[in-house]
Amino acid sequence: MEDLGKYYSPDPRYLTLGEGFGDSVHAATFPKHILRWRNDKAAKTIGLDHLSNEKWINYFGKFHPLPNNLEQPQALRYHGHQFRHYNPDLGDGRGFLFAQMRDENDRLLDLGTKGSGVTPYSRDGDGRLTLKGGVREILATEMLEALGVNTSKSFSLIETGESLTRGDEPSPTRSSVLVRLSHSHLRIGTFQRLAYLSQHTLLEKLIDYSLETYFGIQPSQDSAQNACLLLEAVSKATAQLTASILAAGFVHGVLNTDNINITGENFDYGPWRFLPTLDPGFTAAYFDRTGLYAYGRQPQAIHWDLYQLGGAFSDIAPHEDIKGILDDWQTHLTPFMRQAYLKRLGLQAKNDKEDDEFLNEFLGWMVASEAPFDQVFFDWHGGGISEQRASDSPLCALYSEDAFSSIKQGLNNYSPHKKTALDTPYFSQKDACSMLIDEVESLWSHIDERDDWGPFEKKIKAIRSMGEALK
């Protein structure tokens, strides 16, 4: 048995749930294993940053079991609403839970996969992930983490040497297997499945497990109380997530109930986009023809998903108690929204009334002016203290217009949250770090056409520099 050192703390807690929550599966055997990305920053938090590349590939490309961890990967079972239509034929179709361990803060974390082969839930899929899909997920998670969003971490990406056929990108295309580090892979759809199958004993067991494992709440003997406690905890977590992705200018694209986990951690990135300008109707997925998951409708979408979790608990807890928790969601969202936007602007809060009035005017101007979303937050980080910086911005003419005068006055009335942020290398430049679709496609074209990873690696460094400045 290999000794991974004192900082590796395995804890396959999932096994304590017993039968009924997943299926043992085997990883695919890939013809090649070319290591393209290893996130040593994330690996350090779980004591695995010291691994050689060879051992890294053995664990995260060939999926040899980590010591004292899950002996066999588990494809998790779940259902879910997809674009408001219930689908009982879901589950981990190209991924599995590979391992669990404690991080440096004693949080239980999962290592899960994407593109690791077929499972009982693959349906007609090949269980694979395109290399482009893996690259896109790294870019999304790195950008969101830098912007302060609670997100899964792209842990590893290994190119696997197969040629895949896909309908939504040029084919054949290169293949990969991704490993992500997450606080939980339990989704709203995990609970929906048990309710749908009337497996109430297992549902209560999962509720108790979730309370204790992810929220540090000791469950009682009262199953109704436990269900309400969990619903309240998930409600707060999802409200905070919603606020943070809006302030980041992010559009997830597919906010189905199988894509919302209970810890309020963003994950599973498909057709995502970042806003060019503040446009409530901006959508990410080409197939979202009605704009169900448009930028401005994301709060409504996540709240609707939360209602489905409440529905899954309806045979356990009283209807009026569930409804009361769900109706209170907006009371959690409002202060989180205020905090998230002020944090993005680098401003100290004053009081709720003044903060709301200023942010409403500021965001209204953002919509009307069609100013580049990221650049405005960059130019005015810290408020009035950045007025000289803003005068050197590519948007300086826009800031001189009468429509911005009251916004500028409002910014001058705020104190910076952290003055030293402006002394960082990130704020010494003139252009904000963004992640718009044209740049994503450009980064991919360098990889696809010339196997040139230099621009991708340079972008990751720029994103992390921004993240250090915004801490």
Question: Any descriptors?
Answer:
alpha+beta, nucleotide-binding, 471 residues, magnesium, ATP binding, 3 domains, 7-stranded antiparallel sheet, 13 strands, YdiU family protein, two-stranded antiparallel sheet
Describe the structure.
This protein has 471 residues and is an alpha+beta fold. It folds into three domains: 9-182, no CATH class; 212-338, no CATH class; 347-442, no CATH class. It has 16 helices and 13 strands. It has helices at residues 40-45, 53-60, 131-146, 188-196, 200-215, 223-247, 298-312, 319-327, 329-345, 352-369, 373-379, 387-391, 396-399, 405-412, 437-450, 454-470, and strands at 9-10, 22-24, 34-38, 74-76, 80-82, 85-87, 97-102, 108-114, 129-130, 153-164, 173-182, 250-251, 273-274. Strands 1, 3, 7, 8, 9, 10 and 11 form a seven-stranded antiparallel β-sheet that branches. It has a two-stranded antiparallel ribbon with strand order 2-4. Strands 5-6 form a two-stranded antiparallel sheet. A hairpin with a 5-residue loop joins strand 7 (97-102) and strand 8 (108-114). Helix 6 (223-247) packs parallel to helix 8. The mean pLDDT is 97.
